[in-house]
């Protein structure tokens, strides 16, 4: 979900100028025409934001438009989605996607002094609605994918993890999608050995460094007592039963952050190791010894993956918090708390 903001490359700046120089404010990507097409909204809170589309026939990508540019008005692409855009959206566009086939989407931004973005795969479901939210601050940009639904007359946003960065349909077609080698039992064993001796796995799986905290019954009692005192009015007992359950679920989610982060870290490491030939994997998989000096490329990848682990951990935390906020907001809507209390739990 998170990526570091970097100084713009010549390629990135050139791509931006090409976009601004042509009649492409609405992008080159044509909406899918299937009657059961999925719909996707791209919400950007940063300047010069774009969402690019890739499939097996378009490995060099298609654009969907540009948002929040000082020189151009935002694209007005809309496809009639049932769930409205967030009230605080700075700019957004909507497109239709062909259902049932894996595609690759990539968010991008360019502020003139920094570029940032994230690529991810998605297999749109028929008639489904999605929302990609793109934010940035001084150090990071964040891409968030959510499934949109109308349930019992309410708008529900459910986070979807961004865990896949390779795209087999375009592997080897350009630098954005490097060539990868297919998984075999032998290659998987080698990749697992490389990952198991990585900095992250060595440090993060040390039992002496384990620290898992859940909400204790006493902590839950304290949180509920504080909330009751702040409300200043009575609510039925089943409200507080649900409140306790939601807090416990959130505590359980947060306690699993490390395990979930490690799982995604290993998946991401495999994505990168698939670009190596068998001979190089075999060399990197050798045990660490005093006489065996690892290759510079192996060290560089290990360090890069340490940084990636923290990005992944941030993403896992954001997802857990989003799920918690959604549960609490549904609860307060159900019991009409917001009509009586300004600081109720609310959806974005």
Can you give keywords for this protein?
348 residues; 8 helices; 6-stranded mixed beta sheet; 4-stranded antiparallel beta sheet; alpha+beta; 10 strands
State the gist of this model:
This protein is α+β, with helices and mostly antiparallel strands and 348 residues long.
- Unreliable residue runs: 8-23
**Helical residues, percent:** 25-40%
Sheet with the most strands?
6 strands, mixed
How many independent structural domains? Answer: 2
Number of β-strand runs: 10
**Mind telling me the C-alpha Rg?**
23 Å
Please work out how many helical segments DSSP would assign: 8
What would the average pLDDT be, to the nearest integer?
A: 86
Query: Per the principal axes of the C-alpha atoms, what is the gross shape?
Result: globular
- How much of the sequence lies in strands comes to 15-25%
User: Could you give the distance between the termini?
Assistant: 18 Å
Helices and strands, in order, run as EHEEEEEEEEEHHHHHHH
């Amino acid at each position: 979900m998170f990526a570091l903001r970097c100084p713009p490359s010549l390629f990135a700046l050139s791509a931006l100028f090409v976009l601004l120089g042509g009649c492409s404010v609405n992008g080159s990507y044509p909406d899918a025409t299937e009657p059961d097409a999925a719909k996707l909204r791209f919400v950007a809170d940063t300047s010069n934001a774009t969402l690019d589309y890739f499939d097996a026939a378009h490995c060099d990508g298609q654009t969907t438009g540009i948002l929040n540019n000082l020189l151009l008005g935002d694209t007005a692409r809309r496809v009639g989605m049932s769930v409205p855009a967030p009230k605080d959206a700075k700019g957004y566009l909507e497109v239709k996607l062909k259902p049932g086939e894996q595609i690759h989407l990539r968010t991008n931004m360019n502020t003139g002094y920094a570029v940032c973005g994230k690529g991810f795969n998605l297999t749109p479901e028929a008639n489904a609605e999605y929302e990609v939210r793109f934010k940035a601050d001084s150090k990071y940009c964040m891409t968030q994918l959510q499934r949109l639904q109308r349930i019992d007359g309410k708008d529900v946003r459910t986070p979807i993890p961004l865990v896949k960065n390779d795209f087999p349909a375009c592997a080897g077609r350009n630098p954005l999608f490097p060539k990868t080698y297919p998984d075999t039992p032998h290659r998987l064993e080698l990749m697992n050995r490389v990952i198991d001796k990585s900095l992250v796995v060595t440090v993060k799986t040390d039992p002496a460094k384990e620290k898992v905290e859940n909400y204790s019954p006493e902590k839950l009692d304290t949180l509920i007592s504080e909330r009751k005192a702040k409300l200043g009015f009575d609510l039925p007992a089943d409200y507080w039963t649900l409140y306790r359950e939601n807090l416990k679920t959130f505590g359980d989610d947060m306690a699993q952050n490390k395990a979930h982060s490690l799982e995604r870290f290993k998946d991401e490491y495999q994505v990168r190791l698939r670009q190596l030939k068998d001979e190089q994997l075999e060399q990197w998989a050798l045990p660490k010894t005093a006489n065996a000096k690892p290759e510079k490329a192996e060290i560089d990848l290990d360090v890069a993956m340490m940084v990636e682990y923290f990005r992944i951990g941030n993403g896992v935390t954001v997802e857990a918090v989003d799920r918690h906020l959604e549960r609490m907001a549904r609860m307060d809507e159900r019991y009409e708390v917001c009509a009586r209390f300004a600081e109720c739990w609310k959806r974005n």
